[in-house]
Write a structure and sequence with these properties.
128 residues, two-stranded antiparallel sheet
């Protein structure tokens, strides 16, 4: 039932993106001492969501827009703005800590959106 409501789909996709991004951050931290390891990250959720065509047009029928499209959660190698270590590793623990906090905020926001949407639905049904 909830998978048909666009805001619920967006909140779910945002939580999935946050989980995948947290996984990439954890992988970067785990490989902080690995020679030649390049830090990885995912593009911002907003960019991925808009690139999938979800932020703009709405379909009036299910056949108009591919509803089965999912947001990519594959981490990409990122260009490190900092200095690469002599062994070729581009992981900065400070940057990863900041990224981890941003991911937590993104996840908390997705849960807040989901929770608020459920409260609105309950209120509209007279159960909230």
């Amino acid at each position: 039932m909830f998978e048909k409501i666009e805001i619920m789909k967006m909140a779910s996709a945002m939580a999935t993106h946050a989980a995948a991004r947290q996984n990439a951050v954890a992988e970067n931290i785990a490989n902080a001492d690995t020679p030649g390891y390049a830090a990885r990250d995912l593009p911002a959720f907003e960019d991925l969501y808009r690139s999938e065509g979800r932020g703009a047009l709405r379909a009036t029928r299910s056949g108009h827009i591919d509803a089965s499209a999912t947001i990519s959660t594959a981490p990409e190698v990122i260009a490190s703005p900092g200095v690469t270590s002599p062994d070729g590793n581009s992981v900065s623990l400070e940057e990863e800590m900041v990224r981890s906090v941003a991911v937590k905020r993104e996840h908390d926001l997705s849960l807040a959106i989901y929770r608020s949407s459920l409260n609105i639905l309950r209120s509209s049904l007279g159960r909230g």
